[in-house]
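Sequence in, structure out. First:
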Amino acid sequence: MAEASWYVVHTYSGYENKVKVDIEKTIENRSLQDQILEVSVPMQAVVEIKNGVEKAVDKKMFPGYVLIHMVMNDDTWYVVRNTRGVTGFVGPGSKPVPLTDDEMANLGFMASGVVVDFEIGDTVVVISGAWKDTVGAIKSINEGKKTATINVEMFGRETPVELAFTELKKL
């Protein structure tokens, strides 16, 4: 069997999620799960400030485009190309061009999580904020919140303090 690759499909603006749902229904109806592996509308978490209120929202990274991980053959090409809202594959003429692994990595699609240069037990110094110039050892790391907890001495006792990665520097 041929190897699956990522392809980019151009859609009408605002139809990305509809195209995704329609292709997923067609995959199920025609039993193409082994040929069309994943349909994705890449989203990016963005903080919007409206009327002085911060709000986290998801924005489409590539409006008007859908990424599809599939084995390219006549059947899969036909299914995707004839989905309502799809205007065509990205590539010269009618020949779709798969994305390379480097292109997928550059899109941030293959990257997972947050990469930090310190780990539990490392000694760090706080470089900003109320605890500036405080030295402590990392007790825990929360990659989801992008924070680390260090123990600082306060009133003669060790007290855990949670700080953003950007506030810490490894010693």
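Second:
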Amino acid sequence: MKQTTTVLPTFLLSIKEHSKGVKWYIAVTYLAGIIGLALPASREIFLQLTPFHLVSSMILLLLFDNNRNKIILNFAAFVLVYGFALEAVGVNTGIIFGNYVYGEALGPKIWGTPLLIGVNWFILSYSIGILISRIQLNKVLKIMLAAFMMTLIDVLIEPVAIGLNFWNWEGGVVPYRNYLGWFLGATVIFTLWFNIKHENSNRISNAILIAQVVFFGLLLLIL
């Protein structure tokens, strides 16, 4: 037990001291994902790696957060639960986003909803929140801009996710209600984000956000 409590912090600290290396790791893994998913021969293997990739990205974001308290952990817990609940209600009722079903790529499901879907909501909302926090705007405009940016990224994600069978829409068409649901859902998250006291600093959040945009942008062109 003593070894575990001593070695783990040292290991985590050593990672935090190598942000450039972590940024290269992010670039390489996302590039590998693009190539692996673009090639039919390797697509299934890389789809199975999706849950691991989501969780590892979230862990890295939390590791490099510069806050010294539990505020961000509480925020992360909220987004994980909120994102899952939103998707669970959405997929089972069709009220929030429209009628859709999840495939198997995002891992185990409860109520037809992947347990890890909240991780995706956290990665996007946290990275966007850090970015928009640096812009000189009033709080309301920051919330609206962040929610709009998150919705734009979903516009990019949707056709790729459908092509990879992450989820599928009734009739094969993404309804406008989905984007309204994303905007309103994100507005709740960013209202919380811009009303909690925390240090808006993370050395790798921009790298992950850019990697996500490039990842889905290139796969949109390829698939």
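Remark: The chain has nine helices and four strands.
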